[in-house]
Amino acid sequence: MSCSAIYILDVKGKVLISRNYRGDIDLGVIEKFMPLLMEKEEEGLLTPILQTTDCTFAYIKTNNLYIVSTTKKNANIALVFVFLHKIVQVMTEYFKELEEESIRDNFVVIYELMDELLDFGYPQTTDSKILQEYITQEGHKLEIQPRIPVAVTNAVSWRSEGIKYRKNEVFLDVIESVNLLANANGNVLRSEIVGAIKMRVYLSGMPELRLGLNDKVLFESTGRGKSKSVELEDVKFHQCVRLSRFEIDRTISFIPPDGEFELMSYRLNTHVKPLIWIESIIERHAHSRVEYMIKAKSQFKRRSTANNVEIVIPVPHDADSPKFKTTIGSVKYAPEQNAITWTIKSFPGGKEYLMRAHFGLPSVECEDTEGKPPIQVKGAQRQIKGGSPRPPDPFTVQGRLEMALKLLNPCNEPIVTMASRTDAGVHAINSTCHVDLLRQNGTVYNTCSITACLNKYFNKADVPIRVLRACIVPQDFHCGDTFDVEKMKEAASLLEGWHDFRTFMATSRGRLDKVTRKYIEQINIIQNTDRGYSSFSWPQFIQPKSNYLFLDIYVKGKGFLYKQGDRGREFD
């Protein structure tokens, strides 16, 4: 490959980051890049590769930033572009948003990354999970002798050793999008499905996973196509997949990276019915204005809903004075894209909506010479997830919380994990829970907004639940963490003496004890790990006993109410 240097430029061509790896090209050669780029753009001959007498520029543009590679040799240009996109991916995972401000705020970390990504112009470690082990954004006290992470030189370079989770979980999403091209008469010229299998893995150790595909799925290399088979093309696997095993029995066997990654992507050439059909009528009034009428119709079942649909309509480059009117959603004019974007947050099946747009024009004399780009439809029309989502139970605190959290429109199913549970009739002042919330645009929810939204829902629904506070916690946080024995002893001391325990007793006998005031002489809580275990205190078929905290609770009193103390009580 042999990259001589890597540059990151702003939209005006100013150098933000530069790193010279080989020293065979003067760093000042980058000053020729922007004039050459503007010249080619004016001539209509713009390409991702620009050549001068001194060197060759290969570049990509993202968020008004140019990532540029220079080389003097006959490099593998495809590999160069893959590496440039990998730079963007790594920095996005580090800084969430790759833009000029994040570049300036994190230039020290970026230079460290550039030193690890390339060595003398050749790619080295490009896995962000491994890079984050020794290039961090926070201060850490050095407690061990510095050494290279084992994963860098290990056969499984994409996963570190010693990963531990309190709860082992795997999430698998199949995300598909439809690309469809139709002519002016409404006839479909070309259609295809582009899909990806994405996973989020939170497993301990070095697990080996296997994924089997349906027997109807064939690959273009097999040559055994049947009338009812599904033939996948352009299949691309993550580097963790054992290709030799896949070639033998078509089983996807792999040791997954930690966290989120794309397991495979594919393309399917097939005749598909467009999920959302677009019809447009354009009326041009000479030398004055142009009017658009866009009709969008959903062609899927009524019980389904398309979320965050974006319809992009191209307009003339000299259009001005936009005016919009729509039956649903919002419309914005993007002059830098010469287009308007019609956004529909929720598009039910079997519905159709209209949007009208009006633009002023200085002149339309050259309208026949201009190209007419197609209208684009974007949106998360279909997502297939493993397993059926569990419907929230409206008669529990957990269920009510999950119903309220759905009002935040997360892209995942909010599953609430409570810190403790109570039986019917047992009262609790407050509790703690945790939940994963993934936003559509990838940003983090505002915790104050979460609290306000949930309490507004509970108040409107007349539900006696209030959220006191919401906060962001680490990925390995669990609300039902280890008991604080000293706090438990402090709480137990409040129950000693004379108290009315009527809310502690069970009522399953159909009658209540007449005297509910009882005297508790003493409560002792002892942490004990050297003891016998029962099926209640140690479910050894689930996890080893080392993962549990065992407590002996001794209560001494003069008489107890019916089931005031439940020996088989399980605490989460």
UniProtKB/TrEMBL annotation:
GO MF, any single term: pseudouridine synthase activity
Entry's Gene Ontology BP terms: intracellular protein transport; pseudouridine synthesis; vesicle-mediated transport
UniProt keyword annotations, A-Z: Cytoplasmic vesicle, Golgi apparatus, Isomerase, Membrane, Phosphoprotein, Protein transport, Transport
Primary location: membrane
Domain MHD: 167-430
Membrane topology term: Peripheral membrane protein
Localization (cell): Cytoplasmic vesicle, Clathrin-coated vesicle membrane; Golgi apparatus
InterPro entries linked to this entry: Adaptor_comp_med_subunit (IPR050431), AP2_Mu_C_sf (IPR036168), AP_mu_sigma_su (IPR022775), Clathrin_mu (IPR001392), Clathrin_mu_CS (IPR018240), Longin-like_dom_sf (IPR011012), MHD (IPR028565), PsdUridine_synth_cat_dom_sf (IPR020103)
A Pfam family assignment: Clat_adaptor_s
GO CC annotation: clathrin adaptor complex; clathrin-coated vesicle membrane; Golgi apparatus; organelle subcompartment
UniProt-listed PANTHER family: AP COMPLEX SUBUNIT MU
Physiological role: Subunit of clathrin-associated adaptor protein complex 1 that plays a role in protein sorting in the trans-Golgi network (TGN) and endosomes. The AP complexes mediate the recruitment of clathrin to membranes and the recognition of sorting signals within the cytosolic tails of transmembrane cargo molecules.
Protein family: Belongs to the adaptor complexes medium subunit family.
Protein name per its UniProtKB record: MHD domain-containing protein
Organism: Callosobruchus maculatus (Southern cowpea weevil)
Lineage of the organism: Eukaryota, Metazoa, Ecdysozoa, Arthropoda, Hexapoda
